[in-house]
Amino acid sequence: MSEVVSFNDHYQARSGTTQRPGPRTQLTSPPVFFDRKELAQILQVYGQMVAKSEWRDYAIGQEKHLCVFAIFHRTTEKPVYRIFKEPKLAKKQGAYSVQAQNGRTLKRGQSLSQVLKVFDRKRFDTVE
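Structure (tokenized):
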């Protein structure tokens, strides 16, 4: 629904002379998603592991301050790996992390390419 505001209140709010409490003065953070470049990096690793029949399904989830790319071996199971993006941790531990099925953090870092190196060992194993 719309809110009726007098011209004087609107002008004062726009000029910054008075601050009215409400949703306009609260700072809200934008939702967190993987951008196109990040998703391309993740899907490149995912595609190689699907070709080896190690992974079969994925899901993308989003919460208020983070987003998750979950990787499954079978659809009915818990995710084998979860790749997190948490921008609020960028200055502390790194915005990106990879967690195993048991919840243990395997790698954490500032860049996604650095974090995805945890899968390099599995990608280039030889099959007899």
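The first helix runs from residue 7 to 15. The radius of gyration is 21 Å.
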